[in-house]
Please model this.
Amino acid sequence: MTNNLCVILGDQLSLNVSSLKNFKKDQDRILMMEVFNEAEYANHHKKKLVLIFSAMRHFAEELQTKGFSVKYSKINESQNDFTKELEFQSKKIKPKRIVITHPGEYRVLQEVKKWEKVLRIPVSILEDDRFFCSIDEFEKWTEGRKELRMELFYQMMRKKYDILIDKNGKPKGGKWNYDIKNRKSLPKNYPRIPEPLEHKPDNITKQVIIEVKKKFPKHFGDLEPFWFAVTHIQAMKNLNDFLKNKLDNFGPYEDAMAQEESFLYHSVLSMYLNIGLLEPKQIIKKVLEKDGIKVESIEGFVRQILGWREYIRGIYWHTMPSYSKTNYFDAKNKLPKFYWTGDTEMNCMKNCIQQTIKESYAHHIQRLMITGNFALIAGIKPEEVCEWYLSVYADAYEWVELPNTHGMTLYADGGILGSKPYAASGNYINKMSNYCRDCKYNVKEKEGKDACPFNYLYWNFFLENQNKLQKNPRLWTVFSNIKKMSSAKKKQIQNDSKKFLIQISK
Ligand code: FAD
Ligand code: DLZ
Ligand code: SF4
Model:
């Protein structure tokens, strides 16, 4: 009879995961389950499905080679959801206890919390200590605070872990944050930037590709060519490649966009980090060991992982489940069909969506300032925007996707996460990218049929939400411009916006 049955979920693929820490190879077993419910609760990109199933199968194989006893249920032989499959396996394995690391998503945690009752077996849910900040520690940090800004959380984490701190307890280089040096656009004749390291599918991945092709043909995105890392060793190669070839330029060009460059100087590691093939502590350690890197690149990268990633997770668990229902602006428009096809004449949108269809990847500024910014100023329902981001990106799990969408991008949370909506007109996109050069619309035009839609939608958004936003001190310039606007100009903006929004709703 098995003592502990250790359930390892698809985003817990780390040998270091807490559920394995007290594992006794002579008494305990591991259960890993591929289930339809997880594959179908969102229209996951086909590459994301292949990544998860292949990484799970490789991880199970690695555990077996290391002497762990693993029961692995493949998608074609398992029940529909975690609970049903666990019930089925428990009847055969007869464990005394179920052990699991705290799931990443609220939805799955609710399911796990029911297991004791359903199975009549004790269930231990252990903390996911792969993160720098525990859920409880974040909760304590929020106590008594009027605002939960990332910057103060990040400073607390830097001090706690003694990261980029000098002997006197001050930030190395003199500043906590070099954001101001993270905003360069690419120079005109920049050399082509190397693409992320690609991995040829082995037999396990080839088999998963066949199964995904057959079982999930209607899911979003291009299945092939599939090039992602699917093991810890492969993902480490990607990390080392990034540190060697890209980290130094990461900082200056963090906010840049270019239509020929899908990845620029970004690490393209989130899809590995979020399933456990890489761990945040391991990445930060390696980054800090690098010599001769610009301070804005080291600090900028550390900020993303130690700051943003941990803060986003904290906000998720602090605010769920109500956070997923937030809609501060009462946005009502449907997500335009072109988000799923890329079939639009707005070149920036077309480029980011087509790249997403192909790679299941877009970097942060594409997500925030192109597809996200458009959804914000076009008044798209947060629920539908969220569903899109959760489906299309290989790194998308609700704990990280939801606060980025409802909070950072749509301001649907009314300012829990950000201090103002990140709305921008075509001018910003033109400054930071070369998309406008090849667009049917004219970024310099503010009104009429040739004008860049971002231009009139931007002002329309502030006109429509004036009551909710005009007291925000960070939007003082926007509303002082609106005050100076003639009523004819306002009418024109509203008419252009209305016409365009009707056209894209068809
Ligand atoms: P890099 O630019 O190289 O950054 C390094 C790492 O920092 C990333 O791998 C990631 O782990 C972390 N990071 C950076 N920014 C954030 C952030 N805002 N939140 C959390 N972690 C961050 N990230 C996800 O991992 N999953 C998502 O589902 C997701 N959805 C998003 C939705 C929207 C609307 C927006 C605006 C952002 C979203 N992000 C999400 C954050 C960010 O865009 C991605 O983490 C990043 O683009 C991944 O690419 P990269 O690994 O090349 O990142
Ligand atoms: C995303 C995903 C998919 C598509 N399939 C599975 C699966 O079949 N089995 C599994 O254990 N995990 C899968 N995942 C990841 C889970 O959705 C993830 O573990 C939860 O979101 C964590 O809360
Ligand atoms: Fe995008 Fe407007 Fe530029 Fe076209 S002109 S690429 S729609 S910002």
Remarks:
- The longest helix spans residues 295-319.
- The pocket of DLZ (ligand 2) is lined by residues 9-11, 33-35, 38-39, 44, 49, 52, 103-105, 108, 397 (CB under 6 Å).
- The chain is about 50% helix and 5% strand.
- The longest strand covers residues 29-33.
